[in-house]
């Protein structure tokens, strides 16, 4: 009977979308300075992430740590509105760090890397016009990767790492139920999950000038088993949204296959071209399975229908002096999201990437690198199939990056 | 090490510098009024236009009226100030319904807010418009929103109307009461742009009274609508008019009363079990709808119809609706099958006569079972039977063709509210919200099942704005619907 008066508040628009285009390509400051290309370059210990097959060709034992201050400025113009709405995302801190060691001039190197290849941090606030679709998102994936790199010959290296993902998600949105004081209800899904995968790479020094790389970082199926499903609604609806409640959800973080090319044009100038193929189509559905269901709170299955997508990255490094290098790069990344599936989490679109970088060898052991990445996402006007949210998105990203390296 | 610190500082500084570069998508609409002039917008209409909600007119409903939402958006394209006769000092206004919870069976529990009302005195009651006989706080400054709850198109030329409707009386000067008809009052406003949504009550009051309040004859409707539109456009004002949704599709009839009907059916079945010889439910049936007054009915026009119990709305193939009065008089259902004249005594008292007169006029026998005997029938005013619904549909169609023709003749923007309400009932997806015509949960209709929530009024405002923009090539921005509340849950 109650159903007559309290329909399914959550039926069509209840499911959260994980941010799309939530891959973070800031896994080494040297590469970031070159539009994030460099699978076929022997850079530093970040090769553990970029290409475990080339780590064995580096000198000695190395450690590096790279940090970023990602400023993603999302704007939205609701269909028919005149005033832009801005997200206030704060500064996201993606990082990458690693250590590798092995016998000098030996046949192998072992290492451990920690990095954040996926994530998102979006906060549109609680009163914007898309509040019923999303108010904020925090998504973190921290990959921990023990790695082994082996020299098959002086020209050919192979490497593999095992990935353990520590994931965290916190999604918040408002619910279209009004409280007695006129405020609106809200929902929050937060939880931690684990996932496993691998990262393999081949490195081949074809000639003195040309090097080739082929790498594959696998899909990492990450499951949140026991996340908190927090619903803040009127007392009269407490039976419809029982508290405490938990949810289960699985997110497939897609694999990335990279073909890399390195070219030493002169003694001072090195160029790199990376082509990434990201297997986004593993993200076809997003499901939330609530532990306690009611007629108003049903499990959800949202179609995502992502498509596999490509990224093209071209970068270069020029040695100004023995110690100082300047870098630059340009890239183009295609969005995996089809029209109708764009949501406010990270409103993705095809993007142009422009980067600059600097490297300085302070002492024989210490080096420092800095880079700056600018991303310009195409303006995209969308009507979301699931939420009906209509409007135009536009995003710029500004990302300074800084890294320290040490050889021992 | 010093270098590292310097680099870090540089990085941070850069970060702060870039914080300010945000993509600007603003649309400059300042000069986008198209071929209309919104500098003085005036809204003409009834309760919907006034922002009536939850069975009352009160401040927060007024503030969310669709004309005030439209006016706020118009201010970006050259619209001027928009004044409403707000209940500012006594925000509870006429009083209103609130939802206090759900019963054990899941039915909504509604309570009336009746404290601190904007009542300033008493006057002669009016059975339809002012049963409590109150006078409300005056608001006699110039206004833009002329929405008067309860007003029919057939009332607009009636000089005496303000004596019957305190919600019209309150916006008149003392000397204008009983003198100035609504049409004259509106004509004085001299709009450059207007909206007009009138005629709903010409149908709704008939439906809500079970056919007792007469429908406005079609020729009279046509004549008055023409006069009204001519008056509004006489100075070259542009405007938007809306037609009438089907009243029987609102929750009042399809949910609230259906629920009462299911209760009524249960009562009837109990009465039948107690006395198997009882015939079917018997209703006294009014004569032709435009002849019947409420207070005196010649005996020869009283016809009796018998309705199968299952024909009551809410089950079976039935089409009969019990009206709102039944919801407000639950004791009526308890009288079913009883040998009682209690209803007729109260009916007589309400109409200033004696029960003997009523018994004689209607040829009643109150020793018979109430609602089961042709001589003690259930009152027609509490039932909207299938025939009456056919009449309503037919009149709505005719009124709507008049409204559309008037809009076309003056080249005005035209909102097809009838079709739009059908879309709402089927369900809309607005900015991440499911909105439907479902009672309470749909978010569109307020607790009275006829008028809208702030969210519903925001959706209606956008429908008007889109229609205006399409007609006059203007770019009035749309309201952000999510910022407006649905039904408030305790």
From TrEMBL, chain A:
Pfam families, per database record: Toluene_X (PF03349)
UniProt-annotated location(s): Cell outer membrane
Record carries keyword Ribosomal protein: no
Stretch forming the signal peptide: 1-19
Main location: membrane
Record's keyword terms, sorted: Cell outer membrane, Membrane, Signal, Transmembrane, Transmembrane beta strand
Membrane topology value: Multi-pass membrane protein
Keyword flag Signal: yes
A Gene Ontology term for the protein's cellular component: cell outer membrane
Gene3D superfamilies linked: Outer membrane protein transport protein (OMPP1/FadL/TodX)
GO molecular function terms attached to this record: long-chain fatty acid transporting porin activity
Family per record: Belongs to the OmpP1/FadL family.
Protein name (Swiss-Prot/TrEMBL): Outer membrane protein transport protein
TrEMBL record, chain B:
PROSITE patterns named among the record's database cross-references: PROKAR_LIPOPROTEIN
Enzyme Commission code(s) on record: 3.1.-.-
SUPFAM superfamilies in the record: SGNH hydrolase (SSF52266)
InterPro entries associated with the record: SGNH_hydro_sf
EC class of the enzyme, as a word: hydrolase
GO molecular function: hydrolase activity, acting on ester bonds
Keywords: Hydrolase
Superkingdom in the source lineage: Bacteria
Keyword Transferase: no
Listed name of the protein: SGNH/GDSL hydrolase family protein
Species of origin: Xanthocytophaga agilis
């Amino acid at each position: 009977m109650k159903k007559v008066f309290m329909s399914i508040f959550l039926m069509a628009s209840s499911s959260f979308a994980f941010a799309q285009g939530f891959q973070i390509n800031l896994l080494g400051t040297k590469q970031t300075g070159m539009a994030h290309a460099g699978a076929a370059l022997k850079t530093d210990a970040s090769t553990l992430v970029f290409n475990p097959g080339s780590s064995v060709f580096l000198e000695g034992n190395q450690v590096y740590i790279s940090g970023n201050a990602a400023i993603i400025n999302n704007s939205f113009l609701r269909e028919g509105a005149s005033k832009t709405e801005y997200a206030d995302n704060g500064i996201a801190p993606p990082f990458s760090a690693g250590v590798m060691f092995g016998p000098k001039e030996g046949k192998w190197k072992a290492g451990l890397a920690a990095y954040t290849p996926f994530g998102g941090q979006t906060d549109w606030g609680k009163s914007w016009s898309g509040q019923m679709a999303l108010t904020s998102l925090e998504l973190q994936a921290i990959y921990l990767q023990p790695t082994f790199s082996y020299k098959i010959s002086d020209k050919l290296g192979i490497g593999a790492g095992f990935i353990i993902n520590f994931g965290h998600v916190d999604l918040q949105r408002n619910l279209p139920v009004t409280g007695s004081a006129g405020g609106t209800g809200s929902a929050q899904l937060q939880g931690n999950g684990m996932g496993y995968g691998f990262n393999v790479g081949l490195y081949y020094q074809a000639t003195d000038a040309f090097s080739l790389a082929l790498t594959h970082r696998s899909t990492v199926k990450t499951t949140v088993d026991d996340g908190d499903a927090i619903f803040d609604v009127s007392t009269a609806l407490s039976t419809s949204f029982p508290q405490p409640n938990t949810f289960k959800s699985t997110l497939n973080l897609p694999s990335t296959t990279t073909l890399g090319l390195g070219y030493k044009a002169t003694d001072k100038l090195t160029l790199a071209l990376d082509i990434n193929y990201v297997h986004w189509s593993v993200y076809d559905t997003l499901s939330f399975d609530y532990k306690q269901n009611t007629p108003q709170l049903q499990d959800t299955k949202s179609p995502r229908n992502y498509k596999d997508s490509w990224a093209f990255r071209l970068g270069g490094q020029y040695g100004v002096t023995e110690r100082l290098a300047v870098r630059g790069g340009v890239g183009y990344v295609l969005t995996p999201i089809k029209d109708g599936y764009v949501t406010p989490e990270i409103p993705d679109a095809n993007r142009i990437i422009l980067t600059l970088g600097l490297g300085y060898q302070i002492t024989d052991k210490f080096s420092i690198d800095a880079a700056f990445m600018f991303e310009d996402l195409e303006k995209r006007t969308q009507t979301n199939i699931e939420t009906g949210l209509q409007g135009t998105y536009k995003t710029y990203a500004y990302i300074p990056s800084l890294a320290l390296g040490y050889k021992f | 090490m010093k270098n590292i610190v310097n680099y870090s500082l540089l990085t941070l500084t850069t970060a702060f510098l870039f914080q300010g570069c945000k993509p600007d998508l603003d649309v400059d609409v300042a000069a986008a009024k198209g071929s209309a002039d919104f500098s003085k917008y005036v809204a003409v209409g009834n309760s919907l236009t006034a922002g009536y909600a939850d069975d009352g007119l009160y401040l927060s409903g007024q503030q969310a009226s669709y004309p005030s939402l439209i006016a706020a958006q118009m201010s970006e394209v050259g619209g001027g100030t928009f004044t409403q006769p707000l209940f500012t000092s006594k925000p509870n206004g006429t009083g209103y319904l609130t939802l206090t919870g759900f019963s054990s069976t899941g039915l909504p529990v509604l309570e009336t807010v009746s404290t601190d009302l904007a009542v300033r005195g008493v006057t002669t009651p009016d059975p339809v418009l002012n049963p409590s006989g109150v006078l409300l706080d005056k608001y006699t400054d110039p206004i833009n929103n002329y929405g008067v709850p309860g007003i029919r198109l057939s009332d607009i030329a009636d000089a005496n109307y303000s004596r019957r409707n305190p919600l019209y009386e309150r916006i008149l000067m003392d000397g204008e009461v009983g003198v100035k008809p609504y049409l004259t009052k509106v004509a004085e406003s001299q709009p450059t742009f207007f909206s007009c949504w009138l005629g709903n009550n010409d149908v709704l009051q008939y439906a809500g009274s079970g056919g007792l309040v007469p429908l406005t004859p079609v020729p009279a409707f046509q004549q008055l609508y023409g006069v009204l539109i001519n008056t509004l456009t006489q100075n070259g004002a542009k405007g938007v008019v809306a037609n009438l949704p089907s009243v029987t599709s609102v929750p009042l009839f399809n949910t609230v009363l259906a629920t009462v009907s299911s209760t009524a059916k249960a009562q009837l079945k109990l009465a039948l079990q107690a006395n198997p010889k009882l015939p079917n439910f018997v209703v006294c049936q009014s004569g032709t709808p435009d002849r019947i007054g409420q207070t005196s009915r010649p005996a020869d026009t009283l016809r009796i119809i018998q309705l199968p119990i299952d024909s009551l709305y809410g089950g079976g193939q039935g089409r009969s609706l019990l009206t709102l009065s039944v919801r407000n008089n639950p004791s009526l259902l308890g009288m079913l099958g009883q040998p009682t004249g209690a209803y007729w005594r109260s009916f007589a008292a309400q109409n200033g006569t004696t029960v003997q007169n009523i018994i004689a006029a209607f040829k009643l026998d109150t020793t018979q079972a109430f609602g089961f005997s042709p001589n003690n029938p259930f009152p027609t005013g509490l039932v909207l039977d299938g025939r009456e619904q056919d009449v309503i549909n037919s009149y709505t169609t005719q009124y709507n063709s008049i409204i559309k023709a008037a809009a076309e003749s003056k080249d005005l923007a035209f909102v097809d509210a009838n079709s739009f309400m059908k879309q709402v009932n089927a369900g809309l997806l607005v900015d991440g919200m499911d909105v439907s015509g479902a009672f309470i949960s749909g978010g569109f209709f307020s607790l009275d099942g006829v008028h809208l929530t702030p969210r519903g009024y925001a959706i209606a405002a956008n429908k008007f704005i889109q229609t205006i923009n399409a007609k006059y090539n203007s770019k009035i921005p749309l309201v952000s619907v999510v910022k407006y509340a649905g039904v408030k849950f305790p």
